[in-house]
Design goal:
The complex is a heterotrimer. Chain A has 19 helices and 35 strands. Chain A is an alpha+beta fold. Chain A folds into three domains: 183 residues, Alpha-Beta Complex (Aldehyde Oxidoreductase, domain 3), CATH 3.90.1170; 328 residues, Aldehyde oxidase/xanthine dehydrogenase, molybdopterin binding domain (Aldehyde Oxidoreductase, domain 4, 2-Layer Sandwich); 144 residues, 2-Layer Sandwich (Aldehyde Oxidoreductase, domain 4). By secondary structure, chain B is α+β, with helices and mostly antiparallel strands. The mean pLDDT of chain B is 97. In chain B, a hairpin with a 2-residue loop joins strand 6 and strand 7. In chain B, strands 4-5-10-6-7 form a five-stranded antiparallel beta sheet. A four-stranded antiparallel beta sheet of chain B has the order 11-12-13-14, with helices on both faces. By secondary structure, chain C is an alpha+beta fold. Chain C has two domains: 76 residues, Ubiquitin-like (UB roll), CATH 3.10.20.30; 73 residues, Orthogonal Bundle (DNA polymerase, domain 1). Chain C has a five-stranded mixed beta sheet with strand order 2-1-5-3-4, with helices on both faces. Chain C is globular. Classes of the chains: A alpha+beta, B alpha+beta, C alpha+beta. Chains in contact: A-B, A-C, B-C. Chains A and C meet through helix 1 and helix 17 of A and helix 1, helix 2, helix 3, helix 4 and helix 5 of C.
């Protein structure tokens, strides 16, 4: 009778997740679950106007409400030099407005009370006298001469222009365009959307008046970096700050910035001497926290008559809102947008990017974008679609003709990225076979004769993740290494502490698996800890798909360090020389005599009880890993849509996703990440939108207007994989968290364009809603 | 996003409820399903001083055909309508509409009567009642009156219902033979309000249209009864030309606003397309198919 | 302060004095410290706050605590029986139907109610029933798998007493 052996948890094992045990019981410890004795509650009063001067603030009615302990305004914060704080992009941001409000929803004053209902009642009673100013609502408007100056408080800021940044070789690109047989242009807009994790942001700030220690429970994707920033901004000694990021209900980049609410709650706790909790409402979250995208893009592709791409020119204008608060590596003003050559062998490319202030919430880099790679991927994949239509080539054919070939890796791109590995034609072939592409093209042709609209969309994306080599990648100067600390106990169990921080990606399981693979300790015996800055090594956190590439590498390296020491101990136990010791998944044995062996558990015990001369006790280590390069996951996504000509409704009939993220630590977890990303991509492509009217009023600041796909709309996904390991990563893994959000929006939109391209329609901006599709058809006389 | 303070009352009988409402006047509000009212309270778009919760009153969730009339009580939940075999077999426009209200969890609590009394121009049930020529029974401490659905709605969130009244019964003429109906709703996702929706109710009479009811959702300051479109069908054969003409008239009767769901032209076109499709489906059902 | 209410929560009678405006979700989370029910929005859309009231899924952010007086409420904390996982909980773990876990309590409770009405749902039945519960992490694929798996487990478990009874007769 066969007994099913539970999987040990090696790399490649789809073991079930340890963290689930508490979540399925409703015993997660999310921020709002935290309750401390004497804890007070904070609510924020926000500006109803997009741009207005503050004439006066009257807090007396608010202060008179029974249960209110304090009301904090910008003026009070200014006395403690806390009214403004630095952003992650080298700008400053108002904590609480002092002179002006610069976006609708901006934080103006905070009430701290003994009850959350009372805090909100009182916040509504704060009277602010505003002098409304003209709002600037688009970056084009912002850059017009004579536009209202938004950042008039900023020394040296004469207009609303933030940055200009270029990549690539302009002269070489211009030359390529001279030689082109055809130039295909596309102007497109990647609208403002929002990561909108199901759990909003929050903090419980507990500054102990007796000891001066500040324990900040915070929804933070990067607790160590946040601790350092708090120390600098609030002037608190860093050793007295402990940030504990508990269970997080989704991050997607929303929990990377430092928000005014965190700062005020901390200041309030410091001044009052009691814990202060602030948890935002969904409306607060959507109107004021780090949005995503809002990129106006213009691309030009130079081509030969046979479809070979010669050059790419891109101009981009980003709408950064009222403060330049992108969370991105400091050397790149527009994130990694310059990966825009994508999967193609384009030897000449030039990218020009500019950023502008507007009267909107600050942000831009968020929502699983890989530091603006989703914008880049969208542009190139949409441009290739246009090229296919213009050149009357099949969209897969034009891609295959221009893909970087497997033998060209490592590949240096025209904008300076060294792609580590890839096999784009193979991923595409797997996808085409899975879809039954040729049959569907036949069906499309038949349907077209009858006037029925059906489309097949293609996107072959290349991602760049794993920030990153310290030389080039830092966030406000903090180099983007990451860390892992591993300690094995006498009874052979282990504890792994990380500098990254899961928000649902399953690190407690998958990072243990790396140790299992390298050291042979079963994953079930490995405790993984993240998020408590007092107890974990310094790291830059989890976003931009960096955990596996950087933190995972650190984990593999530290495991190998321990394995090296373990070998010495094993040699001692086996009375052999270290050079003769072999290791195989938890077993140390003498070469040639496999029966002469010791397990890792034996060695662990010996590390505390029976050591060779001169060797320190214990079996532990810490590694700070500086990756030699980024990693480059890739894939091909195919989408089939049917369109109703009477209503413009688009129905996704099928979605095939073939991903290559190198070695997959836990295939079940990897697939889950992709499912989630494909759904967010679907939402972005078809329904998610934050927009503004001419007065800067925000539309999309609650779930009535900001539409998230439910299980009913969301398509079923058909998954495939190829595995092209990363040559430089210790376990060959590349990371996958954002591949699907990066690559899928173009696939969905290309499907719609493919359905209507024969009518001459080249672009419908996201979200591709039914009315826009109908309007495009109607313009061509093809609507019902 | 939390309600302002109010006083709460949970009467055990309709008379008790009416007594309370009479006392409170403008300061009182009926709480039935609460799926429209409580969100408004949380946004502080409504701050009544007194809530009169009718959920503890027994036997208000009836749905029955009696004396030539389909009668629906004030506590019939959307979910019960969705599950009703009576509606599925004989009142298809209602059976079509019920599962399209909000989302499945909201449908567990929300009520048809509450939705009608709330009178959101994007609400579905008002449109259905207009297409079906329903009547509404309004009771106050002082007595009872019946108002036709076509006279009930007077603007966005505005009806003939007084603050001292409860909508105690919805009355719909019982389904005659050769009747069929359909409700078509375009929504951006489950749980969104309608972009456009059309209710069609047809009674066929010897191969011609005996009577037609056409209601429109989300294309005007209130749910609309497309009376000219209805009249154009009376007594005619339901051929393609008649359908097209009725659909065009329905589109004309609509008065949509341009917004993020679409332009005026777009919404009008959907009215036209849905009226056509709805008439075809209703007529199939009237003939015993679909 | 307010009204006296007694609500049976997970089989246990709980009494408290509450303001009428206190939302049921806050009653559960703050007064009873049952924090497994979560809050994800403020417009009754997301379903993270879903509980069962007399067996029926309700968004507890859109019900007043005073309305639950005299009723039975089941939260995720009430799913364990004698320390054993409910088949739905086991299935969610088995099928990787959760990532961050925030929507999970609501998803499971709505699914449990679905299976009571429809013990053998299709994928579409499940997706339709869950269209009032938003998830941002999973893309719903594995949630559907989990519910299907739970359905199979629960049907098999229900069949056992019937089979035993049949064997006896």
């Amino acid at each position: 009778m066969a007994v099913e052996t539970p999987l040990k948890g090696n790399i490649g094992d789809s073991i079930k997740r340890k963290e689930d045990d508490r979540f399925i019981r409703g015993k997660g410890n999310y921020l709002d679950d935290i309750s401390l004795p004497g804890m007070l509650h904070m609510a924020i009063n926000r500006s109803p106007f997009a741009h207005a001067r503050i004439k006066s603030i009257n807090t007396s009615a608010a202060q008179a409400v029974p249960g209110v302990v304090a009301v904090v305004t910008g003026e009070l914060l200014a006395q403690h030099k806390l009214a403004w704080m630095p952003t992650l992009s080298g700008d400053t941001q108002a904590v609480l407005a002092t002179d002006k409000v610069r976006f609708q929803g901006q934080e103006v004053a905070c009430v701290i009370a003994n009850d959350p209902y009372v805090a909100r009642d009182a916040a509504a009673l704060i009277e602010v006298d505003y002098d409304v100013l003209q709002a600037v609502v688009t970056p084009q408007q912002a850059l017009e001469p004579g536009a209202p100056l938004i950042r008039d408080e900023k020394e040296g800021q004469k207009d609303n222009h933030i940055y200009h940044w270029e990549a690539g070789d302009k002269a070489k690109t211009d030359a390529a365009f001279e030689k082109a047989d055809k130039v295909v242009k596309l102007d497109t807009f990647y609208p403002r959307c929002h990561p909108s994790p199901l759990e909003t942001c929050g903090i419980v700030a507990d500054v102990n008046p007796a000891t001066g220690h500040a324990t900040l429970y915070m929804t933070s994707q990067a607790p160590h970096a946040h601790r350092t920033l708090f120390a600098i901004v609030a002037g608190l000694p860093e050793q007295n700050i402990r940030i504990i990021s508990p269970d997080i209900g989704g991050g997607f980049g929303n929990k990377v910035p430092i928000y005014p609410g965190y700062v005020v709650a901390t200041a309030a706790s410091l001044l009052i001497g009691k814990p202060v909790k602030w948890v935002e409402d969904r409306s607060d979250n959507l109107i004021s926290t780090g949005f995503a995208r809002d990129f106006h893009m213009s691309g030009e592709l130079a081509l030969r008559n046979d479809g070979r791409m010669l050059g790419l020119r891109v101009k981009m204008l980003s709408d950064n809102g009222a403060f330049y608060a992108d969370a991105q590596p400091s050397k790149f003003r527009a994130g990694l947008f310059h990966i825009v050559t994508g999967s193609y062998d384009l030897q000449a490319a030039h990218v020009e990017t500019d950023g502008a202030y507007t009267n909107k919430a600050p942000g831009g880099v968020a929502y699983r974008c890989s530091f603006r790679v989703t914008e880049a991927s969208y542009l190139i994949e949409r441009l290739v679609e246009s090229a296919a239509l213009e050149m009357k080539m099949d969209p897969t054919e034009i891609r295959l003709k221009n893909f970087i070939k497997p033998e060209q890796f490592p590949y240096m791109s025209a904008t300076g990225f060294e792609y580590d590995s890839g096999d784009y034609p193979r991923a595409m072939q797997v996808a085409l076979d899975k879809l039954g592409y040729q049959e569907l093209r036949k069906e499309q042709a038949e349907k077209r004769k009858k006037g029925e609209l059906m489309g097949i969309g293609v996107a072959s994306f290349t991602e760049v993740v794993g920030a990153g080599p310290g030389k080039h990648y830092d966030i406000v100067g903090l180099r983007m290494f990451d860390s892992a600390e591993l300690r094995v106990h006498p009874t052979g169990k282990a504890i792994l502490k990380l500098g990254v921080k899961s928000q649902g990606q399953g690190h407690e399981t998958t990072f243990a698996q790396i140790v299992t693979e390298e050291l042979g300790i079963p994953a079930a015996d490995i405790e993984v800890q993240e998020g408590d800055t007092d107890n974990t090594p310094y790291g830059l956190g989890t976003y931009a798909s960096r955990s596996t590439p950087v933190g995972g590498a650190a984990t593999a390296v530290v495991s190998r360090k321990l394995r090296d020491k373990a070998k010495k101990i094993a040699a001692h136990l086996l009375e052999a020389s270290e050079a003769d010791i072999e290791f195989d998944h938890g077993k140390f044995f003498v070469r040639g005599s496999p029966s002469k062996s010791k397990t890792i558990q034996d060695v662990a015990f010996a590390a505390y009880t029976n050591l060779p001369e001169g060797l320190e006790a214990g079996l532990e280590g810490v590694t700070y890993y500086d990756p030699p390069n980024m990693t480059y996951p890739f894939g091909t996504y195919l989408v089939v849509v049917d369109i109703d000509r009477g209503t413009g409704q688009v129905k996704v009939r099928r979605m095939v996703a073939v991903d290559d993220c190198g070695v997959r630590i836990n295939p079940m977890v990897v697939e889950g990440q992709i499912h989630g990303g494909l759904t967010e991509g679907f939402g972005i492509a078809f329904m998610e939108l934050i927009t503004f009217d001419e007065e800067g009023n925000c539309i999309g600041s609650n779930f009535t207007d900001y539409l998230l796909p439910t299980a009913w709309e969301t398509p079923k996904f058909e998954m495939g994989e190829t595995v092209t390991p990363s040559p430089h990563h210790p376990i060959g893994a590349k990371g996958v968290g954002e591949s699907a959000t990066v690559g899928s929006p173009a696939a969905y939109v290309n499907a719609v364009i493919d359905a209507v391209g024969h009518l001459g329609i080249r672009n419908i901006d996201m979200p591709v809603t039914s009315d826009k599709v109908w309007a495009a058809l109607n313009e061509k006389g093809a609507a019902e | 996003m939390l309600p302002a303070p109010f006083e709460y009352h949970a009467p055990r009988s309709v008379d008790e409820a009416l007594d309370l409402l009479d006392q409170f006047g403008d300061e009182g509000k009926v709480l039935a399903g609460g799926q429209s009212l409580i969100p408004l309270l949380k946004l502080r778009f409504a701050s009544p001083a007194h809530l009169v919760d009718i959920n503890k009153i027994k036997d208000l969730d009836f749905i029955e055909e009696r004396d030539g009339t389909l009668r629906i009580g004030p506590l019939l939940r959307h979910k019960a309508a969705e599950r009703s075999s009576l509606l599925a077999s004989r009142y298809q426009v209602m059976a079509d509409a019920a599962p399209m209200i909000a989302d499945p969890i909201i449908r567990n609590r929300g009520t048809i009567a509450g939705s009608v009394a709330h009178a959101d121009p994007s609400g579905d049930w008002g449109t259905v009642l207009l297409a079906m020529d329903a009547e509404l029974v309004l009771r106050s401490k002082k007595g009872s009156r019946t108002v036709k659905a076509r006279d009930f709605f007077s603007g966005p969130f505005s009806t003939a219902l007084e603050p001292t009244e409860i909508l105690t019964e919805i009355r719909i003429p019982a389904a005659k033979p050769m009747t069929g109906g359909a409700y078509l709703k375009l929504e951006r996702k489950v749980g969104d309000f309608a972009t456009v929706a059309v209710a069609v109710q047809l009674r066929m009479d010897d191969g011609k249209v005996g009577s037609a009811g056409i209601g429109l959702t989300a294309v005007g300051p209130q749910n609309i009864k497309a009376e000219k479109a209805e009249a154009s069908l009376k007594g005619v054969r339901l051929d393609d030309a008649a359908i097209k003409q009725a659909a065009a008239l329905a589109a004309d009767a609509s008065d949509p606003k341009a917004d993020h769901r679409g332009s005026v032209e777009y919404k009008r076109n959907v009215v036209r397309v849905f009226t056509e499709r709805g008439l075809k489906r209703a007529s199939e059902r009237a003939r015993g198919g679909g | 302060m307010g009204q006296s209410i007694t609500v049976t929560v997970n089989g246990e009678q709980r009494s408290a004095e509450v303001e009428p405006r206190l939302l049921l979700v806050h009653f559960l989370r703050e007064k009873l410290r049952l924090t497994g029910t979560h809050i994800g929005c403020d417009t009754t859309h997301c379903g993270a706050c879903t509980v069962l009231v007399d067996g029926t899924p309700v968004k507890s952010c859109t019900m007043l605590a005073v309305q639950a007086d005299g009723q039975q409420v089941t939260t995720v904390e009430g799913l364990l029986t004698g320390g054993a996982l409910h088949p739905m909980q086991a299935a969610f773990k088995e099928e990787h139907g959760l990532q961050c876990g925030f929507c999970t309590p609501g998803m499971m409770l709505t699914s449990i109610a679905l299976l009571k009405d429809n013990p053998d749902p299709t994928d579409d039945d499940i997706r339709w029933a869950l269209s009032g519960n938003i998830c941002r992490c999973t893309g719903y694929m594995n949630i559907v798998k989990a519910v299907k798996s739970a359905a199979v487990q629960m049907k098999a478990a229900a069949a056992v007493p019937a089979a035993t009874a049949a064997a006896r007769s």
